[in-house]
Write a structure and sequence with these properties.
The chain has 314 residues and is of the alpha+beta class. The chain has twelve helices and nine strands. It has a single domain, classed as 3-Layer(aba) Sandwich (Beta-lactamase). The radius of gyration is 18 Å and the shape is globular. The chain binds glutamine.
Length: 314
């Protein structure tokens, strides 16, 4: 059914390349320097086969696409009960940096908004900040199948200007949702967001989730299969922020976007899809990324409630 995928990716890329709507993120000043025309689409199947079209060498910072991966590590390290009691699984219906993302007892509504991701960062293991960062970096490297490093300029730019995240961090500490040094936790959060990947790397990460936690290239396990549903559910409900309802309706796949212009989407048991193009809509989702995902889902009937996913005669 997906035999013609390489040609399809090329024709979608040719068509969407001329799309000009959206704005590159500027609230992290360094991100404003991104070339708005950069555009890449990649797909990795659970057998490790990959297809990529466009600017395949362009590397970008993961930003919020790191959130489901760090959430997975929190589940893995402290278990489901504690992680979910500290980060919640309710949709926020508001933007990624919203203060509304906290419930009445000071708990984030979910780990896909910044408040929740600051909590999952606080749960990373290690006796020093470097150890904790290395834990995240190594997990991301296993997901992406790339030896990832941080983009120092983006990291410093966000650290310098990230006062809203700083406010969220201190609020979480005040409520007792996070413990320890707030600046250290925020530093780990900023560094996780500044980890780099190519579109192919992000598709590999999505394919690792589609492959129930096993990297399809190396067969290395990065998260236990039992936690995949936890990750995919919060991605489906919250991965696209206040666009999540429309996304579930139109695309119907667990996904995560980041303000660098990255989107990853997971077709469980089949493949991971990633798109990178820095122009964003008002929700902070890549405009070309949304268009590509909508098109692929319609063309191949990949919506999670579509008939391809649920054949009537199994
Ligand atoms: N680092 C970004 C922030 O905290 C991540 C947000 C995003 O990608 N949506 O604002």
């Amino acid at each position: 059914m997906l035999d013609d995928l390489p040609n399809t990716l090329q024709s979608i890329h040719d068509r969407e390349r001329v799309r000009s709507d959206g704005q590159v993120a500027t609230y992290i000043p360094e991100l404003a320097k991104a070339d708005p025309d950069t555009f890449c689409i990649a797909v990795t199947f659970v057998d490790g086969t990959s297809h990529v079209v466009g600017d395949e060498h362009a590397a970008f910072t993961l930003q919020s696409t790191a959130k489901p991966l760090v959430f997975g590590q929190a589940l893995q390290i402290v278990g489901r009960k504690l992680t979910v009691s500290l980060t919640g699984v309710e949709p926020t219906g508001s933007s990624f940096s919203s203060m509304v993302g906290l419930d009445e007892i000071g708990r984030p509504l979910n780990p896909m908004v910044n408040a929740g991701a600051i909590v999952t960062a606080s749960l990373m293991p290690g006796s020093t900040p470097e150890d904790r960062f290395e834990h995240v970096r190594a997990a991301v490297a296993t997901y992406t199948n790339q030896d990832t490093t941080i983009d120092e300029a983006v990291y410093r730019s966000e650290k310098r200007t990230g006062d809203r995240n700083r406010a969220l961090g201190y609020l979480l500490k005040d409520k007792g949702t996070i413990e320890g040094d707030v600046e250290e936790t925020l530093d780990l959060y900023f560094r996780s967001c500044a980890l780099r990947a190519t579109t192919q790397g992000l598709a590999n990460a999505a394919a690792t989730l589609a492959n129930y936690g096993l990297n399809p290239h190396t067969n290395e396990r990065v998260v236990d299969e039992t936690y995949i549903k936890d990750i995919l559910v919060v991605m489906l409900m919250n991965g696209m922020y206040n666009y999540a309802g429309r996304w579930a309706y139109e695309v119907g796949l667990p996904a995560k976007s980041g303000v660098s212009g990255a989107i990853m989407a997971v077709v469980p048991g089949i493949m991971g899809i990633a798109v990178y193009s820095p122009k964003l809509d008002t929700y902070g989702n890549s405009t070309r990324g949304l268009a590509v995902c909508r098109d692929l889902v319609q063309r191949y009937d990949l919506h999670m409630f579509g008939s391809t996913m649920h054949p009537r005669n199994p």
